[in-house]
């Protein structure tokens, strides 16, 4: 399976990532990727960029080294109601909005509260995709999330960095989640979650898991740039019918 898109990467702007957008784009270009998401952490994370960063993304070139860039955010879910840490007038300007749970940004809670927060963020018409449900910090009802992903047609990530980190609990969560995604047939993205340029486009663990779990190629959004761009366009169109 040839992946042409990485939708989840961080630059030096995130505060704990170490490459520039130019370095990430060059790495993407050398790997044959055609579309790259620049998704630095939302402002409530320690060391993450301020609102000014997100307000100025329009100056980014459309393309670097022949790779189309989607400037966006990996927003933090900050409450049990699934609120995100970027105001709506900023979210509307992002070309790509990922959302996920992160330590220090989300207060924590019971499995029901965590799952509700995650699903409410998924239902938010300004969220495009959900990330790393397999991380062990906050317990989630992974079957419910897979079911809702199929219902809402919002992609959820199989995160390569989570798998590569090698924690037993994370591995088990990711395997369980992948089997639920195979069962309910919701859309997925495979993201590198690169925090350094050499990780951009690295999908080996996620691809192996997708194959082992029996997830269909049709379910994987970021196989082709066109599939991603069509989805994003449709998601933006649907915003006006859901708010
Ligand atoms: Zn990070
Ligand atoms: Zn994250």
From TrEMBL:
The keyword Hydrolase is annotated on this UniProt entry: yes
Top class in the EC scheme: hydrolase
Sorted UniProt keywords: Hydrolase
InterPro entries: PHP_dom, PHP_phosphatase, Pol/His_phosphatase_N, Pol/histidinol_Pase-like
Cellular component aspect of the GO annotation: cytosol
Record-level Gene Ontology MF annotations: phosphoric ester hydrolase activity; zinc ion binding
The protein's Enzyme Commission number: 3.1.3.-
SMART domains: POLIIIAc
Annotated Polymerase/histidinol phosphatase N-terminal domain residues: 5-79
One Pfam family hit: PHP
Sequence intervals crossing the membrane: none
Matches recorded under PANTHER family: PHOSPHATASE YCDX-RELATED
Record protein name field: Putative phosphatase YcdX
């Amino acid at each position: 399976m040839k992946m042409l898109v990485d939708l989840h990467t961080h630059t030096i702007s995130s505060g704990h990532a170490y490459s520039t957008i130019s370095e990430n784009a060059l790495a993407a270009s050398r790997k044959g990727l055609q579309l790259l998401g620049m998704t630095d952490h939302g402002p409530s994370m320690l060391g993450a960029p301020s609102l000014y960063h997100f307000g100025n993304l329009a100056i980014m070139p459309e393309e670097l080294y022949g790779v189309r860039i989607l400037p966006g955010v990996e927003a933090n879910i900050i409450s049990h109601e699934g609120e995100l840490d970027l105001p709506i007038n900023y979210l509307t300007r992002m070309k790509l909005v990922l959302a996920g749970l992160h330590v220090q940004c989300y207060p924590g809670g019971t499995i029901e509260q965590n799952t509700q927060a995650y699903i409410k963020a998924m239902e938010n018409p300004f969220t495009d995709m959900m990330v790393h449900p397999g991380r062990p910090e906050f317990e989630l009802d992974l079957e419910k999330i897979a079911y809702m992903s199929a219902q809402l047609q919002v992609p959820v990530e199989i995160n390569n960095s989570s798998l590569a980190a090698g924690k037993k609990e994370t591995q088990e969560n990711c395997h369980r989640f992948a089997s639920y995604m195979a069962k309910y047939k919701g859309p997925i993205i495979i993201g590198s979650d690169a925090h350094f340029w050499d990780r951009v486009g690295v999908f080996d663990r996620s691809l192996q898991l997708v194959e082992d779990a029996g997830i269909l190629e049709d379910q994987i959004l970021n196989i082709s740039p066109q599939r991603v761009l069509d989805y994003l366009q449709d998601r933006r169109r649907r915003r006006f019918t859901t708010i």
